[in-house]
TrEMBL record:
NAD keyword on record: no
PANTHER family registered for this protein in UniProt: DEOXYADENOSINE KINASE (PTHR10513:SF35), DEOXYNUCLEOSIDE KINASE (PTHR10513)
Alphabetical keyword list: Kinase, Transferase
Gene3D superfamilies for the chain: P-loop containing nucleotide triphosphate hydrolases
Source species of the chain: Adhaeribacter terrigena
Residue span(s) of domain Deoxynucleoside kinase: 3-197
SUPFAM superfamilies listed in its UniProt record: P-loop containing nucleoside triphosphate hydrolases
GO molecular function (one): kinase activity
Keyword Kinase: yes
Name of the featured protein: Deoxynucleoside kinase
Amino acid sequence: MHIAIAGNIGAGKTTLAAKLAQHFNWDVHLESVEDNPYLKDFYNDMPRWAFHLQVFFLNSRFNQTQQIQQRTKGVIQDRTIYEDAHIFAKNLRSSDMLSERDYENYFRLYESMITMVQPPDLLIYLKADLPKLITQIEKRNRDYESGIRLDYLKKLNEHYDEWIANYKHGKVLTIDVNNLDFVARPEDLGYIINKINIELFGLF
Ligand SMILES: Nc1ncnc2c1ncn2[C@@H]1O[C@H](COP(=O)(O)OP(=O)(O)O)[C@@H](O)[C@H]1O
Ligand SMILES: Nc1ncnc2c1ncn2[C@H]1C[C@H](O)[C@@H](COP(=O)(O)O)O1
């Protein structure tokens, strides 16, 4: 079984991934953040580092999907390769922070890779409005994210809404997390686990 968790920056993907992995006794595959050689530079100067960062994430996410495809037990994945291309790279292009030439080059590489990627059995989309994202980004307190602009998060949310409405790779569970606190309230975590059980195993 392979569950992937999608959602904007600060939506709660990593936190939920850890909790689900513990509940189901499955492995968790996180994204490359602390060891990412471009992320800090990217936040200081997006047009300068956009292409480098996208190629780094694409390669690291592709390697992760190859590992997941060889799994021997259930796995929870924190963010998908689809989001790199259809959310982040697309947004950088539409904001003119990635040139048409670099975007085309990137997207052709993505299309070659995606033929070798198996979709998750279930995609969980954590949907959060800006106030929730901002509160949680502040709570996490990564120094290089302190200057994230509101309109950057807003545009990413718009890309997420469009992408999820057109997602055709398999089952999707959209969870509105605006009023959920699965850190402090076990019943909120139980609510999500219950929905997963229904979606994947037909259990009530
Ligand atoms: N539903 C939630 N309720 C309360 N706090 C949350 C919730 N989801 C995430 N958090 C907190 O918000 C911060 C960011 O969450 P994180 O899981 O790192 O988000 P993401 O991986 O989507 O960027 C963390 O400090 C986490 O503990
Ligand atoms: N493909 C990406 N392009 C730009 N930035 C990205 C991409 N994937 C992840 N990120 C950033 C967003 C956050 O600052 C960190 C970690 O993501 P998070 O949603 O907090 O788990 O990397």
